[in-house]
Amino acid sequence: MATACAIGVILGGRINFSTSKNLFTSNPKKQKLNRLIDYIDYEYVDDVNTDSIVDLTVNRILENLDPHSVYIPKEEYASVSENMQGDFVGIGVSFYNVNDTVVVIQALKGGPSEKIGIRGGDRILYANGTPLFNMNIPTDSLTRHLKGEINSAVTLKVKRKGTEDLLTFKVKRGRVPLKSVDAAYMLSPTLGYIKVNRFAETTYKEFKKALKRLKKEGATQIALDLRDNPGGYLAEAIKIVDEVLEDEKLILFTKNKSGAVEETYSRREGMLEDGDIYVLINENSASASEVIAGALQDNDRGIIVGRRSYGKGLVQREMELGDGSAVRLTIARYYTPTGRSIQKPYNNGNDNYFKDYMRRYNNGELNNADSIHVNDSLKYTTPKGKTVYGGGGIIPDVFIPKDTDSERAKIQLLMQHGFMNRFVFNVLEEDRSYYNNISREDFKTEVKITEEIVQDFIRFSRMQNISLEVNEHEDLLKRYLKAVMAQQLYGMNAFEKLLNANDPAIEKVLELSKKNQ
After folding, report:
1. Where are the beta strands (DSSP E) in 118-271?
2. Which residues contact 386 (CB under 8 A, 6 or more apart)?
3. In what residue span(s) does the PDZ domain sit (predicted)?
4. What secondary structure does DSSP assign to 41-75, as a single string?
């Protein structure tokens, strides 16, 4: 998880080539590399894929710079960009390939398939007459049949349980949102909750929409959950901070290689300037998540709850390389309003850098705030006199220990990494008509995760060589299984609501909220 978190980046705009006049001028170093590639292409005794050599060379160069300067090969660039854009063009379904058949898990909310009535459990057998079953088609090839140009149409032949004949749906492909705000609901009559999973191009828009709705429902306080959020676009994080801080408050500043400093201030009246705010972070909260936590903490605004964050204070800019690939290159460091850099050291190499999570685990800081190592030379003071530290992440105001019980942790990992999804899908398939027609309110009270389902899951796990000793953790397993079931039926908001029941960090925020009212 810590390694995955390192993928989080703070992205600036496109590079301004007018400020880099000599960027592409000829020099001996470039000529040397070009000549070597030409020699290999034309003179080497065997045929060699020089594209792979170039890719390898680029990766090795970047590895020697810092852990967050990365190369994006052209075959990955489209999917990476799509994830950060916040939407894609397609029919809008998530699916499994079950026995060489495309089976819909869920028609995505707001997508074309949901609008025309495609449902979970439907088998998509044909797309424009092309069979999609019994073909051993890779998932990426299946996706190409379902995606396409915006407003283009695809005719689907669908098998639905309980219907004898195939159903025909003509779907006009459209923009399908990839939500970065997973959930927004009320934790109490006055405390709203918003969960952000990354900072994409649409995040601020989603956040503001969620905030408006919660305020209408009575929210005067907000819990902003940035746990496990690896980061993303800096501009989106800044706009969210601007909703919380009064005008003319410093949000952050950046410094590039020439020492040029660029400061960013809050500029407009925000919707959260008066209400209390609680920001939840953990060891996987990185990059733009840390910008928000650091800006609020250094301005004595709100309360940071959780564990020390990842520690990424570098700014990347994405630059295309001319062949469909791109590089995200570190161009600056950012600093919180008090002047601290929260970038953890990387001078001992990337491998050592990405093992930081295990060091934290082994030294006990995930369980005890007193075990967090701080450097007194990196001590800073906020305007109201609170002491904060630089040098590797944001240390929260209120510490929440990590649950390190091995069996509970194993159950949590099985849920987080999608292992439960296929099992739950199979449970839903046993009575798809019932589950597809039950309301969300009835689901809360009527649907129970029985002892039989628990035992079936334990057997399912054993078939995958995973041994589970549920014992006193049966209630946790039942809650997670029902949360995954809610996700497949109703989406992420329902999932998070069930998942957060009895969450220690949420309970602490509720306690703080009552005190501050």
Report:
1. 123-127, 130-131, 153-159, 167-172, 174-177, 181-186, 191-196, 221-225, 232-233, 250-256, 261-265
2. 297, 300
3. 77-162
4. HHHSSS---HHHHHHHHHHHHHHTT-TT-EEE-HH
pLDDT for the residue 311: 97
Q: Which residues are catalytic?
A: 287, 298, 312
Write a three-state SS string for 110-145. CCHHHHHCCCCCCEEEEECCEECCCCCCCHHHHHHH
Rounded to whole angstroms, how far apart are CA atoms 460 and 414?
12
The Cα-based distances of 451 to 454, 481, 499 in angstroms read 5, 12, 19
Q: Is pLDDT of 7 > 70?
A: no
**Owner of token pair 């960027």:** 23
What is the C-alpha to C-alpha distance for residues 456 and 450, in angstroms, rounded to an integer?
10
For residues 10 and 335, which has the higher predicted lDDT (pLDDT)? 335
Distances (CA, A) of 350 to 289, 314, 355, 374: 22, 14, 9, 22
- Taking the CA of residue 66 as centre, how many other CA atoms within 13 Å lie in the half-sphere pointing to its CB? 20
Has residue 19 got a pLDDT over 60? no
Measure the CA–CA gap between 278 and 376, rounded to whole angstroms: 26
Residue 32: pLDDT band (50, 70, 90) is: confident
Q: Which domains does the chain have, with CATH numbers?
A: 88-177 (2.30.42.10), 181-317+328-402 (3.90.226.10), 406-508 (no CATH)
Q: How far is residue 118's CA from residue 160's CA, in Å, rounded to a whole number? A: 9
Region at 385 (left for phi over 0; alpha for psi -120 to 50; beta for the rest): left
For the chain, what percentages of helix, strand and coil (3-state, to nearest 5) are there?
40, 20, 40
pLDDT of residue 39: 86
502: left (phi over 0), alpha (psi -120 to 50) or beta: left
Q: Give the CA angle between residues 478, 481, 482 to the nearest 5°.
A: 85
Strands 250-256 and 326-335: antiparallel
The model carries a pTM of 0.90
Beta-carbon neighbour count of residue 497 at 10 Å? 20
For range 74-93, the mean pLDDT? 87
